[in-house]
């Protein structure tokens, strides 16, 4: 298997770069790679390149770049706003949400949030590893945590928020998202929601759920669409990942149709 690594250096054909401490340790001490071995690298800006190890020492691995393997692409402009969780749960959430194409993580403290601090360096490392393993070409932004008041105060008016509410008569998330794609009657939607937004966010609460006052406030905002995630009470990390998977299937890059040559017979355009 050819290792795939994230680097921070600028990438271009025939260039030479040196890896950072993390990548150096992985190539030398974990994979035991040698000079002449191939590597695939990306930096989140310049696409993905084939490269070859030309030298190794304790401080750095030198790589010579060959051809660009893939041009740079992007993921949907989708934020995940979540209440900080305990260490193992938040590590799992960052890893899997990165795999599912989140463009930015926005931790938010709510009234019932139990965790009080986040190690942003560790979360960034988790996101990098997830991007490396899933052939993603970008890294998600990871923002410092803020209060719910701060999050809403600075909220862009053109970013649609999908609120994962634990209780109440909220529309199932798939049905709610489908309404944004329908060309049929949209009289039930506010002016901000009548055209399909291009900027999105999913907001999930803590293990104890949102306070009633928080839900009341959120439901009054024009950019908020409350949705349900089914009849069962889900753990906070499960709720977030379920919402992301459904979003990707309905509105994200997960709903892209295969090219005609890959479609079953009889299922053309």
TrEMBL record:
Domain (Ribosomal RNA small subunit methyltransferase E methyltransferase) ranges: 77-248
Range of residues in the leader sequence: none
GO molecular function: methyltransferase activity
The keyword GTP-binding is assigned to this record: no
Highest taxon in the source lineage: Bacteria
Compartment(s): Cytoplasm
Reactions accelerated catalytically: uridine(1498) in 16S rRNA + S-adenosyl-L-methionine = N(3)-methyluridine(1498) in 16S rRNA + S-adenosyl-L-homocysteine + H(+)
Domain Ribosomal RNA small subunit methyltransferase E PUA-like per the UniProt entry, residue ranges: 20-65
Function: Specifically methylates the N3 position of the uracil ring of uridine 1498 (m3U1498) in 16S rRNA. Acts on the fully assembled 30S ribosomal subunit.
UniProt-recorded name of the protein: Ribosomal RNA small subunit methyltransferase E
Origin organism lineage: Bacteria, Pseudomonadati, Pseudomonadota, Alphaproteobacteria, Rhodospirillales
